[in-house]
Please model this.
Amino acid sequence: MAKPEVAVIGGTGFESLLTGARTFRVKTPYGTTLQVYSGKLGGKDIIFLPRHGRDHSVPPHKINYRANIYALHKLGIKRVLAINAVGAINATFKPGDLVVPHDFVDFTKLRATTFYDKKPVTHVDFSQPYCPEIRGLLIRKANEINVRVWDRAVLACTEGPRYETPAEIEMLRRCGCDIVGMTGCPEAALARELEMCYAIVCFVSNMAAGMQKRLTMLELGQISKRIRPKMEQLLIETIEALPTERGTQCPCSKALDRGSSSV
Model:
């Protein structure tokens, strides 16, 4: 098998799409990952990393984000497509819609958010938090397969594992957030620190707290099951359409050249 340069980070079950899949773990300075999968998706060799583990046993606030992202870097991954289930804060978004965010606000509290804890002090430019090249492809391919997609949204990432209160959702709405989830941060920042391209495609599983009477895991499962075929098709077509070389307009591959400084 050729050395993969594309990875998908998502929930449990996506590995079933891979052909010739094998599993392994990766040792990193931040710990050893749970199972990682390599195999073919469509015509390309990829890595799949289930962020919650193979049996969905790791809650969002306990995920070892640094080990996961560093492991992909160690494996030679250049591009990462992430899948996230989110609640809609923007009332125009509806369950079953896809969203490709352009920005985020990090409301997490306990997570390690950088690889640069020691000198030299390092800063990376985050004016475009998500890779514009991958974002553009995700949006174009979603339109081609005739699935409803929102091409601009601000993602609020909360700590979890509980859902947010109606007051918290109202605060997030006033802050300009459109969707809310628990796993988008710090993945994007960690990927940028290692000069990997990273973008997210989200599916709206529910309206956020205060925007519907109640929320059950059964309802979430039903929405996920309904949207999954379209999500899978979108990922396959986007990965197949990725150019061999990263584009010159992409800020990701030179993040440290432009953004690093010592204080």
User: Anything to note?
Assistant: The longest strand covers residues 197-207.
